Every structure is written in structure tokens, then in C-alpha cells.
Amino acid sequence: MATPPRANTTLSEQAKALAEALGADVDAAKALKRLQAVGVADLWQVPLYLPSRFLDAREPISRFFGLTASDREEVLIGHYAGDFRTRWHAGRRGGRHSPQAQGSLVDTHGMRIKFSLFGDARSFQKALEEAGEQVALAGTLNQVGAHVYLNNPVLLDPNVLGRVVPHYPGKARVLSLAMARRVIPALLPQAIPACAAKLRADARTLVDESALRQLLARPHGTLEDLLWEAHLPTSPAAGERAQWSLERLSALLTVGELRQLQHEHPPVRQQLHIDEWRDLLTRTPFQLTDEQRSAVAQLVRRFGGEMTSSTLINADVGMGKSIVYQLATAAGVRAGARAAVLLPNERLAVQAHEEISRLFPEWGATLVTGKSGVRDVADARWLIGTTAMLFRDVGRLDICVVDEQHRFSVDQRRALSQDGTHLVEISATPIPRTQALLLYGKLDVIRLTQRHSPQDIRTQIVERAGASRMVDRLHQIIDQGGRVLIVCPRREEDEEDEGGSLPSVARVAEKWEWLFPGLVRSLHGESDPDDVEVAFADLASGHAQILVATTVVEVGLNIRNLRAVVIVNAERFGLSQLHQLRGRLAREGGSGECFLYLPQPVGIDAATRLQALVATSDGFVLADHDMRIRGIGDISAMGERQHGSAGSLLMNRVVPMSTFLDVLEILGAS
Fold this sequence. Notes:
- The protein is of the alpha/beta class and 670 residues long.
- Among the domains are: 58-155, CATH 2.40.50.140; 278-448, 3-Layer(aba) Sandwich (Rossmann fold), CATH 3.40.50.300; 456-630, 3-Layer(aba) Sandwich (Rossmann fold), CATH 3.40.50.
- The chain is globular and about 95 Å long.
- It has helices at residues 11-22, 28-35, 122-130, 177-204, 209-216, 223-231, 236-263, 290-303, 321-334, 346-359, 410-415, 432-439, 467-479, 505-515, 529-541, 575-582, 604-615, 619-630, 657-666, and strands at 53-56, 70-80, 85-89, 98-106, 112-118, 134-144, 147-155, 164-167, 310-315, 339-342, 366-368, 382-385, 399-402, 422-427, 444-448, 455-463, 483-487, 520-523, 546-549, 562-568, 590-598.
């Protein structure tokens, strides 16, 4: 057992001594390089990779009599009996054999308790045999009949006995749990002072020391103490309190970054002299609403301004987002601008290129996809394409439009735009990062709320008990000539590691073909383009009425007279995907029904997300709900995470939106 700390040592000194013992003989440079795989780029960031839980080894169990099963992780110390052996068991369904290792510990009274673990245990056996007479194992106690076993034991460093042990999340084949427990403490003595200095400097630009202490609920101690306690606390409860304070500090620094973005001045650019655009309205296939005309006028004004603009066009499917950006961009191109439109897949890019070429043929729109073969695009006036454009020299652009922004990373969305490029992003459900920027005025938003044709879309959650009623309703819709879309989470039966629990396109299509012979078609992301065309032609002609597909239909694929969408295992999809899939319904107006089918019970988080979809069809409201559930993400200019931890402070921790809002309230923000 570790030597008890001296009475006159501080808690930070005790934690530092333990960190040095745990990280003994670790090469600091190699350790930092290893942590790069989990997102830690610099030494000061190491303390921000927090333990996911704590093991309480303050009172290890040394007497085994009377032990019973327990869900809590326990620490046992005793003498290794030297009886380690491995048995091989046949896998499920006659698959590969799997090893199970067993051994036992003996306490000072001769009481024996067995331990067992699955998988390759050779390294564990070697460490166990080299550990000496007394060893400490951590694991959960499981009871089979009268016998109690220690399951999946972990061999502990003797230095942690009598202390609280951090458990860091690892990464398969890169950073094991045992390795993380060594390399992170090894770096903490040097990393914590650097981290504390940076956090202190950043926080002081926002609040004074008194306000910071109030916000963190820590009237005493330093930031160094807080960081030590978040990793090597005196009790699990103390570690959780410290991490709670760090979440609030993370939220504070995110507020500061958002406020800084709010007051940034956009780059100055040479003005586009756009004299008129209303004459272009004669080319549109339908009469624009007043709201759409106003949206075009707003974009044109921004394109003609001295400052570079960033705009989000937010509107649900079928509200005319495309015609708004197309008219405004056409006015810009006519005034001498160079423009590009980025779309998430080739089918959408081809469709957009055809529409723009038909409406505005004189400006020679150029299609750029992986299959188009177009290489020299530096002189093209108007580019329409997929991410293939990111691998071409497109030259300097005046206008960049990103359609379906949630389908692209920040880097992809910004790759085509430069300091003087007007950026227009299109989305029905803005990603949480964008939603946060909208709240703080970094982005201008144009919302479209009026439809050309009235719609009545009803959404309901259907559990297994209600499946027969749902099928009866789908029968009625099909008998009335409507089309039905069934979305599956998987393409094939052998995908991933889900066994047969998730229905595939092939399995679902087979069931519906039995009910409606000849009326079912299926497709997925790997379908041959000719098969896709045939399937949609059959749906249009009425030779087919049911399409079974993966999320390939999420955007861009329109089915006339689509009256029902069934999303199988709806809990497997995000809000944005669900909203887009529902948006396929009744594009030409009229009624539609969206069934969120849940064959198995779901957790409270998934249920809350699905209830939000039932409650509203407003993509902006859903985006706000999504932000509150998932956090706002990395809001830095080069942010790569679209959601998750607040800002880029905590490396492996989602900061709850409630914490973010609480900090805003404390700071007096609205």
C-alpha cells in the first residue's frame, strides 16, 4: 500500500506525488504523442482530457468471507494462488472459439475467491505473475449459485491503494485503459500549471476573480487545485464536483468566444454593382410569394454590400429555398461575380445544374462532380457540383452557396470561401454549432415559412404493439393510389455488428413484396444508377407504389404523391435526418403521414428526441432542441465538431446545454 501522505502536505502535493508514482518511467514526449490520437494536441490540453469515472480504492477488501454480488466496482487484495488457466469455448452459432481465463486470490485467512476474464489474457497473466505475493484486483462481483466471482479484473498499481483512481476512456488499438492511467498522470505535473495559466488568462478577460469563484462555486483554492482534484481527488464525489466546475468554466469560455465572434467585423470586399434583379422573376416556374421575393432582395443587398456576408437560409423542404438562392446568385453572376454551389451528392448536383442551366442558360453553368471529368474550372462563371470541387483550382469566388449544410463539415463548407466570399448556407435544420452562432448574431438568417401549397403532415410514434394498425393504414393509402416510403437503417444483413436485430432493405422489401406483389421497389447508396431510374419511373407511372430504401432518399429524391413515410428503428437517426425524411412527404401539397416505428423500447434520450419531432414541423425549433440536447459544439472558426463539448475546451466531455444557459443567466446575458 502507498505511504500515507504527510499531515502538512496540501491536497495538490499529494495528488502530484501520486501522479509521479503512477507515471514513473513514462517518456513524456512519447506519452504526449500517444495522446494525439484522442485529440490532445498540446501539453496544456492534457488536464482537459478528464476521467470518465473514478475507482474508490481507499478501503480495499482484504477479507473475502461473506462477499456477495455487487454492481459497484470493488478492489480486492490478496495472494495470487498461481492457478491461472485458460479455457476455450465455442462461439455463438458455431463460430470461432473464445478464450476465458480463470484464477484465484486467497486472503490472509485462506478464503479463496475466483476471478475470470474473457479474451486474450496473456499480458494480464504475465503482469500478475510479476506483481509479487500480494496483488490488488479491481472488478465487479458476480454470484453463480453459492460461488462469488470477480469478473473482468484489472490489476492495480500498489501506489493507488488507499486512494481514488481515475478511469480514462481509451481508444481501441491506440490507447488502452491501463496505458491511459499511466501516461496522463505522468504528464499532469507539467501540464496542469500550463493549463491553469491559460484558463486563468482567458477567464480574466470575461469576469473578475470574485465572479469566477462564484460561477465555479469554489470560494477557495486555485485553478491548479481544481485541475488536480478533477483527476486525482480525495473522493469520487470531490472529483465529480471538480469536473462540474470545469464544465461551467468551459461554458464561460464558450460564451466569451461567441461574444467575440459577435463583435468581429466582416472583411471588406469590392462591391458588386447589382442594378436590378426583378426582371429575372419572369423565368421562374411559379410565382414567388412575397416572403420569397423579400428573401431574394435581402441576399442581393448583401451581395452588393461592402462587407462580406454570412447568411443562413432556413426553411423546411418545399418552401422554395433553391429558387431564392438561384435568383440572387444569378443577379450576382450577371453583375460580374463568380459563384459556386456545393451540394451533397451527384444526383442533387446534376438536378441543380439542370435547373440553373434551364433558367439562366446565358451564363454557362459548369457541372463539377467526380464523374463529370471537368478539370479546368478557374475561369468558369458559375460552378455547380459536389465535393469534387474541393479538389479543383476553382480560383477566387465572390459567392459560395452550400446546400444542405448539415451534410458537410466546417472545413468543407468553408473550403471554397475566402475573406471576400459571400457565404450562403441552406438548411431545414441548422446544426447545433450554426444555431449557436445564429443566437449571437454571427450569422444573418433568412427564414421562409410560407408554402406554395398547403400541407397537412401528421407524425406519430408507433411501437411494436401498434404495428398492425399502422399496416392497416398503409393498406388504405396504397389502395387510394398513394405512394409509401419505408426507410431502413441498414442496407444488408451482415453490416456492422448488429447481428440480425436491425432490419435491412432486403428483408423489409421481401416482407412488403409478399403483401403487395409487384408493387415494391428497393434502393440504397450502392444501387446501380440505372436501377434507381427504373425504380423512380415505376413509382411515377404507378407500376410500383412502395419504395424501401436507406437514407439515400434523405435529400433530393422526390416521389410524387408520397403520402406515407415509415422510418424503421427511428431512434437510430438524428433529428435532422428524421426531419429531412419527413420532408419527402406531399411535396406538391396535401396530406401526409410520418410513422416513427420502434420495434424495441428506447431510452429516455431517444424518446425525448422523437417526441420533439412529433410536436413540431419547424426545422428551426428542432435545431434549437437539438442544440439543447447535444450541446453547441466547437464554435471556433476552424471548428471540426458539429456538436458535443461546449467550445473546444474539454476534450472528452459533453457540456450540458443547461450548464451553458445557467452560466449565461449568471452573467446577465439574455
